[in-house]
Amino acid sequence: MTNTAVDRHLEERLEAVGVIPLVQADAPDTAIAIGNALLEGGLSIIEVVLRTDEALRCLKAASEALPRAMVGAGTVLCRAQAEAAAAAGAKFIVSPGLDDEVVATARAHGLPVFPGVATASEVQHAFNLGLRIVKFFPASVAGGTAMIKALGSAFREMRFMPTGGVSASNLADYLALPSVVACGGSWLTPADAVAKGDYARISGLASEAVEIASSRRR
């Protein structure tokens, strides 16, 4: 399968689901439990963020234990982390910023990559790297829906995944934009729910997001 085919498959899945939950965990078992709760709520694309010492182990465990999910790595900052994420079984790579080496490494492994952008210059650079889907981060402080509308009008082939400040209250507003393929967010996996092992709450938040996305897409 070519990289383009891989990218298109994931793009179609992103469009169908509309939401990418961020998973931050300190132990593999916790990551698996969160993943199962998200799957129960209807979300099948999961981004395990590399923000803890055990993140790579969590990513590997989730990738192996959740065959129904497409598990990727988030907060990938450098080539070494991209290499490690690929080795841990990541199906895609997400970065908070745009780094050429991270993009090249992901492509070398045949993985879709979604670097973060916040300005027209960064979007243009991503476009000239051959990318057509980018993360818009941090969405709420980088201009929100108004900024995405402006960028979308200038870069008609580009699509965006706003992340940062997205919640159930504004999810529909973002998904209403034609250039938005899906939204990412940590509101679906609140730290207090994870700490308490309240996975039913996580499933409920996932179900709510699925319903909002489905209604918006209809």
Question: Care to describe what's here?
Answer:
This protein is of the alpha/beta class and 218 residues long. It has one domain: Aldolase class I (TIM Barrel). The protein has helices spanning 3-17, 28-40, 55-65, 79-87, 100-108, 120-128, 144-154, 171-175, 191-196, 199-217, and strands spanning 19-23, 45-49, 70-74, 93-94, 113-114, 116-117, 133-136, 159-162, 183-185. It has a 4-stranded parallel β-sheet. Helix 4 packs parallel to helix 5 (100-108). It is globular.
Summary, kept brief:
This protein has helices at residues 3-17, 28-40, 55-65, 79-87, 100-108, 120-128, 144-154, 171-175, 191-196, 199-217, and strands spanning 19-23, 45-49, 70-74, 93-94, 113-114, 116-117, 133-136, 159-162, 183-185.
Give the helices and strands, then pairings.
Layout: H1 3-17, E1 19-23, H2 28-40, E2 45-49, H3 55-65, E3 70-74, H4 79-87, E4 93-94, H5 100-108, E5 113-114, E6 116-117, H6 120-128, E7 133-136, H7 144-154, E8 159-162, H8 171-175, E9 183-185, H9 191-196, H10 199-217
Q: Main β-sheet, in a few words?
A: 4 strands, parallel
Number of strands: 9
How many domains?
Answer: 1
CATH class: Alpha Beta
Distance between the ends:
31 Å
Tell me what the CATH architecture is: Alpha-Beta Barrel
- Share of residues in strands: 5-15%
Helix content: 40-55%
CATH superfamily: Aldolase class I
**Low-pLDDT runs:** none
Fold-level CATH name:
TIM Barrel
The DSSP helix count reads 10
Mean pLDDT across residues? 95
Return the structural class: alpha/beta
Outline type:
globular
SSE succession: HEHEHEHEHEEHEHEHEHH
- Strand arrangement within the widest β-sheet reads 3-2-1-9
